[in-house]
Specification:
Layout: H1 2-48, H2 58-104, H3 119-127, H4 150-158, H5 161-168, H6 170-181
Length: 182
């Protein structure tokens, strides 16, 4: 018994140690990824956005403004083009996923209604014009005469139930019921 408990404790401790080691590894990986993203961002900014140097003369400032406007226009066009491409690809993805869904055949089935149908109508629906045999299920049944059973006679003899209630109502009726029970 104690041996099993020691094994369980050892397994639990090992599991906890592995879990903490995995968490430590994950934390270091996340930190490395964040640092790599920051370095990539700095490199991109250094490449595409050179430091701004303001010229002293008015003409140089106007030329700088014209260059900046041209750059803004080109970046805006790029952004618009990428947005259009993104919309186009998302539309294609939706279409393909719809086709995949259709190919799988998982359609929502409509609720079915119960329809009363005779055997002839059912055979006609299944077999079409080939069906020529008439299936009258009641045609070959035997005729059975109703015989009076004892229960039915007893029910007829009881008569009107209201009379029975009126006789048993009040103290007189209770007295009769008590005397009948003895």
């Amino acid at each position: 018994f104690f041996h099993l408990q020691k094994k369980r404790r050892a397994a639990t401790a090992r599991r906890q140690h592995l879990k903490s080691a995995m968490l430590q590894l994950a934390v270091t990986e996340i930190e490395k990824e964040a640092a790599a993203k920051e370095v990539e961002k700095q490199n991109y900014l250094a490449e595409h956005c050179p430091p701004l140097s303001l010229p002293g003369s008015m003409q140089e400032l106007q030329e700088l403004c014209k260059k900046l406007h041209a750059k803004i226009d080109s970046v805006d066009e790029e952004r618009y083009d990428t947005e259009v491409k993104l919309q186009k690809t998302t539309k294609e993805l939706e279409d393909l996923s719809q086709k995949l869904f259709d190919l799988r055949g998982k359609f929502k089935r409509p609720p079915l209604r119960r329809v009363r149908m005779s055997a002839d109508a059912m055979l006609r629906a299944l077999l079409g014009s080939k069906h020529k045999v008439c299936m009258d299920l009641r045609a070959n049944l035997k005729q059975v005469k109703k015989e009076d059973t004892e229960k039915e006679k007893d029910l007829r003899d009881v008569g009107d139930w209201r009379k029975n209630i009126e006789e048993k109502s009040g103290m007189e009726g209770r007295k009769k019921m008590f005397e009948a029970g003895e």
